[in-house]
Amino acid sequence: MFPYEEFKARADAVRAHIATACQKARRDPATVELLAVTKTHPAAAADYAARYGLRAVGENRVQEAIAKQPLCAEKIQWELIGHLQSNKARLAAAHFDRVQSVDSAKLAALLDRAAGELGKTLGVLLQINAGHDPAKFGAEPEDAPRLLETALACPHLRVDGLMTIAPLSSDPAVAVRTFDNLRALRDRLAPEFGTPLRELSMGMSGDLETAILAGSTQVRVGTALFGTREPPPANV
Ligand SMILES: *Cc1c(COP(=O)(O)O)cnc(C)c1O
Question: Is residue 236 part of a domain?
Fold first, then answer.
């Protein structure tokens, strides 16, 4: 792992990038959280994020996060941002503070039951395939109302908002459209269901400015903080 000072310089640069985007969007930079995505990096990456003052780290795989957690010296929250299989719902509820990848009513129900048994309230985001990308997980936007209705009826889940991943594309308009779709969906569902859905988790290293212009409240950044991942991740 590279030295902390190098991480601090990278994190400062990402923060500055966020601030510039917020200025363009006429938004307060305090309304955009930086989530450090530590997948494939050692446990020290999460300690760096904590030391820098970040609230949380994002991990893609349940087992990878569970392996790192006991190795971390610093306290930080853990958010699951990768696809969650039903048979790992219980483990995820136990080891994460929030699950951003809730994309089916079945998964919501399994997480709710597990959280209830653990005596905790689990934060969740509903992952929406706002870019209609056949390669991405996430509920289709037209299924979002039904999924939200189910999640809101789960007593042990706290529905904070929505999450999306833009399709990989050389055309920047694709990300703009995806993020605008998620924002519009939130703006439609929040009053309809009488819940703020405040969190819009959207934007990564390559498209965080676009996401902030569209209203992102949390950018999930890996590469710009920790460098490129070797080997590259499987499907996200
Ligand atoms: C890996 C990952 C990120 C971070 O991507 P970078 O391009 O490395 O910033 C963000 N969100 C999800 C869901 C991811 O899987």
Answer: no
Which of 149, 201, 146, 199 is CA-nearest to residue 178?
201
- Burial level of 232, CB count in 10 A (0-12/13-18/19+)? exposed
Instruction: Give every CB contact of residue 26 below 8 A, 6+ residues apart in sequence.
Output: none
Cα dist from 89 to 18, 29, 56, 77, whole Å: 33, 34, 20, 18
Whether 43 is in the pocket of ligand 1, judged by its Cβ within 6 Å, is no
pLDDT tens-digit series, residues 45-73: 999 999 999 999 999 999 999 999 999 99
Are 224 and 205 contacting, i.e. CB atoms less than 8 angstroms apart?
yes
Inside any domain, residue 107: yes
82 lines ligand 1 (CB under 6 A): yes
- Whole-number Å distance, alpha carbon 79 to ligand 1 midpoint, is 12
Q: Is 105 in the pocket of ligand 1 (CB under 6 A)?
A: no
Q: How far apart are CA 10 and CA 63, in angstroms?
A: 27
Question: What total of structural domains would you count in the chain?
Answer: 1
pLDDT at 130: 97
Indicate the pTM of the whole model. 0.96
- Ligand 1 contact via 77 beta carbon (within 6 Å): no
CA of 135 to the centre of ligand 1 (A): 15
Does residue 96 lie within any of the structural domains? Answer: yes
Domain that holds residue 96: 4-222
Cβ–ligand 1 distance for 10 under 6 Å, the answer no
CATH value at residue 186: 3.20.20.10
